[in-house]
Amino acid sequence: LSDEKKQMVANVEKQLEEARELLEQMELEVREIPPQSRGMYSSRMRSYAQEMGKLEADFKRSRIAYSDEVRNELLGDDGNSSENQRAHLLDNTERLERSSRRLEAGYQIAVETEQIGQEMLENLSHDREKIQRARERVSSIISN
Predict the structure, then answer these.
(1) Domain extents for the chain?
(2) Gene3D superfamilies from the entry (predicted)?
(3) Angle at the Cα of 70 (from 66 to 71), degrees rounded to 5?
(4) Which of 28, 54, 84, 130 counts the most CB atoms within 10 A of its CB?
(5) What is the full per-residue pLDDT of the chain (144 aa) written as tens digits?
(6) Which CATH number fits domain 2-110: 3.50.30.50, 2.60.40.10, 3.50.50.60, 1.20.58.400?
């Protein structure tokens, strides 16, 4: 069970790091969006950052609770019955799994938002090219 928990903790840490990196990349993308469209995405980014902070805090609390349990077990602190310890451990495991699911959902939202941002940038680039070609045609017509 301990190895399973260690693996789960490592997995959550990895996912948190990936989510942090995605948020940073998305922040950079939002900065590239024209100011008139940037507000909506900036507020979404603040929301994502807040959710990320909550997830990290939940994860930290779960790790602290788990490390306290391990320490008590190693020190032989049997103040609680083994059933209470088991219930507490299951509660922490469930909390960690919920946090992992929320993190995964946040990650999916971040990926989708990044894709939408990329599509918008591509559309804007195509529109810019069309406008430039139209200007060139108008200029050539005027000069003739």
Answers:
(1) 2-110
(2) 1.20.5.110, t-snare proteins
(3) 115
(4) 54
(5) 467 877 888 888 888 888 889 888 888 888 888 888 888 888 888 888 888 888 888 888 877 766 655 555 555 555 556 777 778 888 888 888 888 888 888 888 888 888 898 899 999 999 999 999 999 999 999 987
(6) 1.20.58.400
